[in-house]
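Protocol step 4 of 6: structure prediction from sequence.
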Amino acid sequence: MRVLVVDDEVGLTRALRRGLAAEGFTVDVAHDGETGLAMATDGEYDVLVVDVMLPRRHGYDVVTTLREREVWTPVLMLSAKDGEHDVADGLDVGADDYLTKPFSFVVLVARLRALVRRPVAPRPAVLRAGDLTLDPATREVTRGDRAVELTVRETALLEYLLRHGDRVVGKLELLDHVFDTGGEDPNVVEVYVGYLRRKLGKDAVTTVRGAGYRIGAVAAVAPGA
């Protein structure tokens, strides 16, 4: 397994190189965000270890840019910042795991092996279909250059349709995953689809008669997005 460690602490990267090599990893190292981004973009790595506080380019920016470039290599973020909002920010920009310093080397190795075992699939931080975008972390929605205000439920419905944009989603599936199924009338789905169409345009959601709904004429969404 090939791992790239991006961290500006020379002593730590030396220790990680030795320890991970002993565990069977092939290890490359970058000491700043700009170099790490270039290596992660061009190299074929199984997993990345990225520090948050990096010279030349912040760790969050490295991960965000990788996801924008459709590089889906699993990322474990390292940081001395252990606040719950710091962890949430790291995961929201596209990291797969977050480990605070100081950390257990045994735990680090276990988490890297767990990340490598997962199937690699597109996991964009911002969902897109044509000129329609949704940032699930901030719930910001735009259509073209226009910001659109959606309710929490409307946003959840849009997110589910965007994440499954390569297929038709049935009404019962939407009830299970987006709405509280306890006593909800199935027609509530039609009501909220109507809300989305009024706010985003009639072409935003297409009805497939007898089957369900899908993201409409705004554009096809890449499978797995």
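Step 5 (inspection) to follow. Helices lie at 10-22, 33-42, 59-68, 84-92, 105-117, 152-163, 171-177, 187-200.
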